[in-house]
């Protein structure tokens, strides 16, 4: 597991999940599960519904996390795909379109096509994100019950 966070179980649902109270951290900005958690401003408390495969009970202090593979896949889509689309767009505009469109400098044409393909990648990411949110592998889950006595909310 990667991206571990400590929180307190405040409610057990009848769906096999638990609501865990956690404090929003800076890393929430980069977490692929933020569409599921919907965290507030940094530093504020919020509850998130997570899978409860270990049977934690209300009042337990738990560690929640996201599987490493899920984080890797989400990072690939969020960072690599847009960069790849932009570079392909720049190369396409600079090397290919500049042969046919001579009124615009080829550097500027490459930039324009790069930006257009970058925008297309964001549309594709929106579709992929909607599918990933539905996949349970991308939902955070309770990893362990901890005995951390310093935890207080």
Name its key features:
153 residues, alpha+beta, OB fold (Dihydrolipoamide Acetyltransferase, E2P), 5-stranded antiparallel β-sheet, 43% helix
In brief, what are we looking at here?
The protein has 153 residues and is α+β, with helices and mostly antiparallel strands.
As for the CATH topology of the largest domain, it is OB fold (Dihydrolipoamide Acetyltransferase, E2P)
Low-pLDDT windows of residues? none
SSE run: EEHEEHHE
If classified by CATH, what would the architecture of the largest domain be?
Beta Barrel
Q: What is the CATH class name of the largest domain?
A: Mainly Beta
- Mean pLDDT figure: 82
Terminal CA distance reads: 24 Å
Number of helices: 3
- Strand count: 5
Q: Strand sequence of the main sheet, in spatial order?
A: 3-2-1-4-5
Shape annotation = rod-shaped
- Helix fraction by DSSP (H/I, runs of at least 4): 40-55%
Helix and strand composition category:
alpha+beta
- What gyration radius follows from the Cα positions, in whole Å? 21 Å
Kindly estimate the percentage of residues that lie in beta strands according to DSSP: 15-25%
Number of domains: 2
Largest sheet: 5 strands, antiparallel
